[in-house]
Write a structure and sequence with these properties.
The chain is α+β, with helices and mostly antiparallel strands and 313 residues long. It is 23% helix and 21% strand. The protein has 9 helices and 14 strands. β13 and β14 form a beta hairpin. The longest helix has 14 residues. The protein is globular.
């Protein structure tokens, strides 16, 4: 699938600048600072289309142009990173992905002879050195290097799997009980959905949710690790769209806390309405799907999925 279609389907107009960057010529990692600034300026607010005050409109246009005379700020999240089978939007402030979009098929997950033991975690050379993370950030932190695009989802080639080991696809995750267990169970579930759907689209990413203190006030608190101050997310989301051969689409959304989760919990416990995942993440998902909220799997008012007995933490 072309990356333009993948990105347009996965994340919507809530991040319009980023999505356009994923399908425009500036998609490539060779984008330089001056080119990015001039391209970004095209997306600054414009005068109201129905305004009749031509003089004021012309004046506003001049002011807008002068406001970014030396270039608008460059957001690392604008530089979506094209991979063989997934797309990454990276956050230079948190040193985590904003989101990662994947396209799964039976072919992409079932190729033989592709082994993760032949892959190594590594810094992403496409990211500016100011925002780049390294393995040293995770060493001794107590956290696993948790994949957003799972390595086992991308067995079509060794290079496709190796791309999932760039640290731009990685977030700090609690190991036992989460990355190696509950999150891995959710990843396995997404892969099994390729037995039901011809194409499975997955968007994963970190969340930083507030805590309510004893005095009733809410605070945003999260740990940072390593010399580059990599943020440790409080939760993670995974939003899944399955497309059948007849074009029918079914959507599920999950949010899991980044903590040790006891065994025995059903994945259904972590289902959330699509609207909740969007509000908490700040992104609109699968905007190109017609009536997408009606595509969310429900039985009556109950959120459901295609779960089996094995889909437990």
């Amino acid at each position: 699938m072309a990356f333009g279609r993948l990105a347009r389907m996965c994340v919507g107009t809530g991040v319009a600048i980023g999505i356009t960057s994923a399908i425009a010529p500036s998609f490539t990692t060779s984008l330089d600072r001056d080119d990015a600034s001039s391209w970004l300026s095209a997306f600054l607010p414009v005068a109201h289309a129905h305004s009749k005050n031509t003089a004021n409109n012309n004046n506003s246009t001049a002011l807008r142009k002068s406001a970014v005379q030396f270039g608008a700020p460059i957001d690392q999240g604008m530089r979506h990173l094209p991979r063989t089978e997934h797309v990454v939007s990276f956050n230079g402030a948190t040193k985590n992905p904003n989101w990662v979009c994947e396209h799964l098929t039976k072919y992409s997950i079932q190729q033989k002879g592709v082994d993760r033991d032949n892959c190594d975690f590594q810094s992403d050379p496409a990211i500016h050195s100011f925002f780049r993370t390294s393995n040293a950030d995770f060493k001794g932190s107590g956290y696993d290097r948790g994949h957003m695009a799972a390595a086992a989802n991308h067995r079509s080639s060794l290079s496709a799997m190796q791309e999932t080991f760039y640290l731009t696809n990685i977030s700090p995750q609690v190991g036992a009980g989460f990355n190696r267990d509950a999150w891995a169970t959710l990843e396995n579930y997404c892969r099994r959905l390729t037995n039901v759907y011809t194409d499975v689209y997955v968007v994963s990413g970190p969340l930083y949710l507030p805590k309510t203190m004893s005095n009733g006030k809410k605070f945003m608190q999260y740990e940072v690790i390593g010399p580059n101050n990599v943020a440790v997310p409080t939760h993670f989301f995974k939003v899944v769209a399955g497309e059948m051969a007849d074009g029918k689409i079914e959507i599920q959304a999950f949010i899991m806390p980044n903590k040790q989760i006891e065994s025995g919990h059903s994945l259904s416990e972590y289902l959330v309405p699509l609207e909740e995942a969007e509000k908490l993440s700040g992104f609109l998902f699968f905007e190109k799907v017609t009536n997408k909220y009606k595509c969310v799997m429900r039985k009556g008012n109950q959120l459901i999925g295609r779960f089996a007995k094995r889909d437990r933490t």
